[in-house]
Amino acid sequence: MLASYLLSRTLVPTMARYLLRGHEHDAENMEAEAQRHFLARLQLRFERAFERLRGKYKGWLRICLDHRAWLALGVLSAAAASFLLVPLIGQDFFPKVDSGQFTLHVRAPTGTRIEETALLCDQVEKSIRQEIPPQEVNSIIDNIGCLTAA
């Protein structure tokens, strides 16, 4: 990242200066070109819209700079008001729901044959059925397979 940053601040602007020499267009030339090409018209429209947006931004920035005290007061008030949310820290956005199901991951030792892993899962299933009453168990799904190192 450091090398990329250094190149973007040194070599790239220098090369852009030499490679883009002689490509200056005046506004009239741009207008004439825009009449012929769809993409040039699109670019011209974009540039006009961007200039309007930049003008509005300058206006808002001027208002903010002219009323620094009010702006600072507003920002500090918003920051202080955010402390009213402290009691909500740690709460979930969605309420907790008991979906009546749980997921259990069982991992056999590395190198265990798939048949032995299936027997291990059968033992886990048998243990679950002994602990949980049958009327509370709808289904148990075993998904037996192997993990491959990526």
Summarize the helices and strands and which ones pair or pack.
Layout: H1 2-9, H2 11-19, H3 27-36, H4 38-66, H5 68-82, H6 114-131
Helix pairs in contact: 3-4
Low-confidence stretches: none
Helix and strand content put the structural class at mainly alpha
- Put simply, the count of helices is 6
Oligomer type: single chain
Please state roughly what percent of the residues sit in beta strands, choosing from under 5%, 5-15%, 15-25%, 25-35%, 35-45% or over 45%. under 5%
- The rounded distance between the terminal residues' Cα atoms is 27 Å
Global mean pLDDT = 84
Number of strands: 0
Biggest pleated sheet: none
A few lines on this structure:
The chain is mainly alpha-helical and 150 residues long. Among the domains are: 29-78; 103-142. The chain has six helices and no strands.
Fold and architecture overview:
By secondary structure, this protein is mainly α. Among the domains are: 29-78; 103-142. The chain is 59% helix and 0% strand. The chain is built from 6 helices and no strands. The chain has helices spanning 2-9, 11-19, 27-36, 38-66, 68-82, 114-131. Helix 3 (27-36) crosses helix 4 (38-66). It is elongated. The chain starts with a helix and ends in a 19-residue tail after the last helix. 0% of the residues are buried. The model has no long low-confidence stretch (mean pLDDT 84).
